[in-house]
Design a protein that fits this description.
Radius of gyration: 19 Å
Distance between the termini: 23 Å
Number of domains: 1
Strand content: under 5%
Helix content: over 70%
Length: 283
């Protein structure tokens, strides 16, 4: 039975074309921090309302696909391996283990230097901030480090989802990419104001996103020999937990900081609707 659940739609993960596709999606999602950096460095005004809706949209995609599709796939695989009752327990355990892992990573991220998910705007670069330049540089560096650490499990999640099913991997990659744009702003804004160098600000922001494809590669190299229904079931359950945690702990609070509460909710509902429609169309 190994591999059959995740091979049903011809998406068994070991073919090189699937590997290349999954890695490409993860790379694009990770490097979208560069988009955020470019927005901060090349534009004169932030669009908080647009960012609020976009972050809410990203959260909607992640929450819907996690509960409706990813946990379902995890349950099918683990039920095939452990039976109905054992599979249900394994799925729930994997889900909460994913939440535990990503929350532990959040706890390990250095807090001094600024919250990597705190709302930043282009207008902060006009010199009106009361924070000293040395402290801003410190903030930018620690924010980049925090994002790099945080992106590791996100990279593995995107990569694994794309390996199993393109219809799941693509929207997750898009949601992660949207999520990474304000992270790029969070790095670029303080570094530029501290150094007055757009090149340094963009470089640091861009490099912080590389940890996402790096996490995918390292995860694959460590786990590829064990790929099968059991492992993919546990990984998918964990991915669902990670996605839900990111949405509730980061995306929705950030969306509310950038804009009005209702804008974040409108984006959330729109993300769920688009995800539901895409899954129905490819079913």
């Amino acid at each position: 039975m190994e591999g059959q659940i995740f091979a049903k739609k011809g998406a068994f993960p070991l073919h090189w074309t699937n590997l290349a596709f999954a890695f490409g999606l993860t790379l694009l999602a990770g490097l979208s921090t560069g988009i955020g950096s470019a927005l901060a460095l090349l534009t004169k005004k932030t669009s908080p309302k647009l960012l609020s809706v976009a972050l809410g949209f990203s959260a909607g995609v992640m929450i819907y696909v996690s509960f409706v599709e990813i946990l379902k796939k995890a349950g099918e695989a683990l039920t095939a391996a452990y039976g109905e009752k054992g599979g249900a327990w394994a799925t729930a355990g994997g889900f909460f283990l994913g939440i535990l892992i990503i929350s532990a990573i959040d706890k390990l991220i250095p807090e001094h230097g600024g919250n990597p998910h705190e709302a930043h705007t282009v207008e902060e670069m006009d010199g009106k901030s009361e924070t000293h330049k040395s402290n801003l540089m410190r903030m930018g560096v620690f924010t980049a480090l925090a994002i790099a650490i945080h992106n590791f499990p996100e990279g593995l999640a995107t990569f694994t989802a794309a390996l199993s099913d393109h219809s799941i991997g693509i929207p997750i990659a898009v949601a992660i990419a949207i999520h990474n744009i304000p992270e790029g702003i969070a790095v670029a804004v303080p570094v530029f104001y501290a150094t007055q160098s757009r090149r340094k600000a963009f470089r640091l922001s861009f490099l912080s996103g590389l940890s996402e494809p790096l996490g995918a590669v390292l995860g694959y190299l460590l786990l590829y020999r064990f790929f099968g229904d059991k492992l993919f079931g546990f990984i998918f359950a964990g991915v669902a937990g990670i996605m839900v945690y990111i949405s509730l702990d980061e995306l929705l609070p950030s969306a509310r900081e950038y804009g009005e509460h209702h804008l974040a909710i409108y984006g959330l509902v729109a993300g769920m609707a688009v995800m539901a429609l895409s899954l129905l169309l490819v079913a």
